[in-house]
Amino acid sequence: MIKTIVSLFVCFMLGSTFLFAQSANEKAVADAVENMRKVMLAPDKAALENLAADELSYGHSNGLIEDKAAFVENLASGNSVFKSITLQDQTIKIAGDVAIVRHHLTGDTFNKNVAGKVDLMVLLIWKKQKGQWKLLARQAARIPVSQ
Known about the structure:
Shape: globular
Number of domains: 1
Strand content: 35-45%
CATH topology: Nuclear Transport Factor 2, Chain: A
C-alpha cells in the first residue's frame, strides 16, 4: 500500500513538472511575441537583431521574403513603420525546442509616408537557441474580404 502511494506521488510530481515546464515555455514564447510587437512599434536595431535567429525567413503577405538583415534594416531604417499592432486569438504549440505561434494581427502602418491598415493571419516559428526563443520564420496572409 505504501509503495503504491509513493509511486502515485512520484508520478504526480513528474507529471506536474512536465506540465509546469510546458507552461513556462509557452509563457516565454508569449513574452517573446509581445517583445517583438513592442520592438516593431519602436524599432531598435540591437533589439531586432537579438529577437531574430540568424536563419530568419520573414514572409510578408504580398509574397516578399526577407532574411534577418533585410527584416532588421526595413524596420530600423523606417522603411516599414507600424503605428499600432493588435494581436488576437493567439495560439502557441511547443514541439521540443520549436514553438508554433498563430495569431490575427491588425494594425496601422505608415510605410513610405503612406498611411495604411493591415489585417493579417500570421504564423510564427520560434526556436530555442542557447536558452532564448528566437524568431526563425514568419509568414503572413491577408484575410480575404468577404462579399
